[in-house]
Amino acid sequence: MRINYLLLLSSLFFLPLYAGSYSTNSLAEAFRTGFDTDGKPLFLCIGKLFGSRQPGKTWQGYKRCNIPYGGKEYIVDHFEIPSRRQFHHSYWQRDIHLAVQIGQDTNGNRLFLCQTLFQGSRQPGKTWPGYNHCNISYGGREIITDNYSVLTIPRDSTTRSQVHQPTDVVAKCLHGNFGDKACGYNCVRSISRVACAKTPDEQCMADKFGRISCGRNCRIDQFNRVKCLG
Asked: Which region is the signal sequence (predicted)?
C-alpha cells in the first residue's frame, strides 16, 4: 500500500503544474535574453510556481515557460511575457547592486535576471542578493553557473524603484506540504519535505524523489540523487 502511495505522489509530481493559455505580449515585443544551442532566440517569461514568480525562457512557437527551480527544469503553462520596452534602459553587467527585480521566490527573496554562456549558447537564469551564482534551466535540470552577467539599470533611471540592494537578504521561513516548517535562506519545498540553507550563499536543491540537500555546488548525480557540498 505504501509503495502504491509513493508511486501516486511521484506521478502527480511530474504532471504539468498549471493549465491555461499564455498571455500578454507576443514575442515580437518580448525581451530577448539569449540564444539556445541550436541558435534560436530565447525570450524572457515569468512563470508562476508554488506561489512564486520565477524568471524563465521561452521561444517562438513554444507557448510554455521553462524555469529553474529545486534542481529541475520546470515547464509551466501559466506565465507572462513582459514587453521589451520595460527594459529600454537596461544593460548586462557583473555588479548586482543595480539589478532589476524580475520575480520573487517562494521564500520571499527577490529574483534578478542573469545570463551566462553554456555549451555554445547564451542562457538566461536567475540569481538573488548574496547568492553569487546564476541558476539556469537546461536539459531538464537546474544548473548552477559561476560566470555570468546580471540585468541592471542606470542609477538615475526612471525605473529606479525596481532596484533592490543586496542588504535585503534576510532569513525566511517556508512551510511544507505536510505541516512541517524550515527557516533560513534560499528555502526549497519538494513534494514531501522543506529545507533552508544556513547562509545566503548556499542553495537548497531537491531531486525527483523529494529529497532535499543544502550547501554549495549542488548537483543531481547519475542516480538522480541530489548532493551538495556542505
From this structure: 1-19
**CA dist., res. 155 & res. 200, Å (int):** 25
- Spatial contact of 111 and 55, defined as CB atoms under 8 Å apart: yes
**Helix residue spans in the chain (DSSP H):** 2-13
This model's pTM is above 0.90: no
- CB atoms closer than 10 angstroms to residue 130: 18
The tens digit of pLDDT for each residue in 69-122 reads 999 999 999 999 999 988 888 889 887 788 989 999 988 889 999 999 999 999
Are 31 and 85 in contact by the 8 Å Cβ rule? The answer is no
Give residue 141's pLDDT: 93
> The C-alpha cell of 211 is what?
529529497
DSSP labels for 69-96? ETTEEEEESSEE--BGGGGTT-EEES--
Map out the domains of the chain as residue ranges: 32-152, 172-229
Angstrom distance (rounded) from CA 111 to CA 109: 6
